[in-house]
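pasting for the record
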Amino acid sequence: MSNGSLITNSGKKIIINRAYKSNPDYTVPSQFKVGINNGTPGASDTDLAYAIPIEDGVVNDDGSNQLTGSNGGDNSTDNTSIFKEGAGVGDDTAQNLITNATSATKTWVISDLSSAGTVIDDSKRGAIWLYIADATTLAYFKSSGTAVEVKLGSDSSNYYSKTWTASDLSTGWNWLTSNTDTIADWSETGTVGSPVDYFEIEITTNNAADSWNSGDVVYDLLRTWDYADLVDGYDTGYPTIDETNFEVETRLTLTTVQANGFDLNGFGLFNTDGTVLMHSEDTFTAESKSSTDQIIFIVKDRFI
């Protein structure tokens, strides 16, 4: 991955369309997204690799509630040292996913999300955070096939699920996300009814005896969000247009309550069409965003 900045093919379409058509087809860019794990910008890109919610969205479980263990998993315990900031959550608690070395399939469940936070709206996008302490712990995760599965449904037989392999994971915090899919776009087992209030994390290891210490694998913060939570508007008064130097300046601000808990390394400018177009994309050295940070992006496009 290389840092860089460019106007995409979609952005070029917006520019020439609005310059040369008496009745343009596209709206002007007026909003932005930020993201993580963004790759080298490419002219054909239509979105950031992993756009993250700028706004809080809905917290379905804040990580302070115990998960019930089964198979190779025991009941979770509170972790007040390793936890994830974000989504406007005030608690400093996550859950240690405890193992018992009896099965390679290790399962943790909240059967009734209404008792923990709020039920799931499956028309939204969703994610959890999963912390893996080190390479030794990660090596326990099944080396081929599914290593982690997240299930959201009406019960243990009727659920949507999304899976990750060990190669998808890394040490530290992993953002396990539906990304551009809604939860209803995940693989469905059985027929999910209403309410969607069942939550399960399943980790498969290479061997039944594979186990780790408290604090080595930690879950936090089940949250869901709409597309509107991914975008924010330009700062008031922007863009500014300098017709002498043929330059346009756009200014974008993330406040102290926005996009917290992420190592941001990308942003893009977007319009508001029915099919949204990405005007431009930037990838930069990752910046950790917390509630003590305000980040201001200044974008300058110059025609020469």
